[in-house]
TrEMBL record:
InterPro entries: AAA+_ATPase, ABC_transporter-like_ATP-bd, CP_lyase_PhnL, P-loop_NTPase. Belongs to the ABC transporter superfamily. It comes from the Bacteria. One of its GO terms (molecular function) is lyase activity. This is Phosphonate C-P lyase system protein PhnL. Pfam families: ABC_tran (PF00005). Residues 4-240 form the ABC transporter domain. It comes from Virgibacillus dokdonensis. Keywords: ATP-binding, Lyase, Nucleotide-binding. The lineage of its organism: Bacteria, Bacillati, Bacillota, Bacilli, Bacillales. NCBIfam families: CP_lyasePhnL.
Length: 240
């Protein structure tokens, strides 16, 4: 069975002060086996991030189902999972990398990565060692390891965000423009980690505007242009 199945998914947003409702996405279908990587492409405003945030349950979908094969719960529909179940999955199984860093204040970058590892059951010593490896891999200056990330540049925050998510080796990893503000060398580091995660069995769904970055990395490409055409409901996934 698939690791992730999205069936006839749709999401609407209500603009309360105008009393209007807008359909963001509809008729979204795709399925991924363990270890596969789906890249989502499309113009700005086409609903790419809405799909990722609905899988992560930042948004609650309005139509369809999102079936995830959980190590703890078995096949679970994320659209109607309880808050307790969602919190567990975010902590232990599903990772999310966005362009923005949202972390607890007065927590250093080193402590943030260590905390991610401790949540997965690592010992304090192992968490310390693996956190330093991750921070080194993503070339975060050691001088910043014991500083608060609210003072970091956009690229530094993004590299820390990626380190926090990938160090946990999640079963499912969602990537929302993870290379948006990175230089070429940092993009290569991200690609190396993605390749290692895929090889270890992590299933990935990612949004990229950098088509060259996706080349040879994604197993399938989901084109939002086709998904939003009401005459096309099937066959929107293309082999990469």
């Amino acid at each position: 069975m698939a690791m992730l199945q999205v069936k006839d998914f749709g999401k609407r947003f209500t603009i309360h002060h105008l009393g209007k409702t807008r359909q963001a996405v509809e008729h979204i279908h795709f399925s991924l086996e363990q270890g596969e990587f789906l890249g989502i492409v499309g113009k700005s405003g086409s609903g790419k991030s809405t799909i990722l945030k609905s899988i992560y349950r930042t948004y609650r979908p309005d139509e369809g189902s999102i079936i995830y094969n959980s190590a703890r719960y078995g096949f679970i529909d994320l659209t109607n999972a309880t808050e307790r179940e969602i919190l567990y999955l975010r902590k232990h199984e599903i990772g999310y990398v966005s362009q923005f860093l949202n972390v607890m204040p007065r927590t250093t970058s080193r402590e943030l990565v260590e905390k991610a590892l401790l949540e997965m059951g690592a010992t304090e010593q192992a968490a310390k060692i693996e956190a330093e490896k991750a921070l080194t891999h993503f070339e975060l200056d050691p001088k910043l390891w014991d500083h608060y990330p609210n003072t970091f540049s956009g690229g530094e925050k993004l590299r820390l965000n990626i380190a926090m998510a990938t160090v946990k080796k999640p079963r499912l990893l969602l990537l929302d423009e993870p290379t948006a503000s990175l230089d070429q060398q940092s993009k290569i580091k991200v690609r190396e980690i993605i390749e290692k995660l895929k090889a270890s069995g992590t299933t990935l769904v990612g949004i990229f505007h950098d088509i060259e970055f996706m080349d040879g990395l994604c197993d399938h490409v989901f084109d939002m242009q086709f998904s939003q055409d009401k005459s096309v409901k099937e066959g929107v996934i293309h082999e990469s």
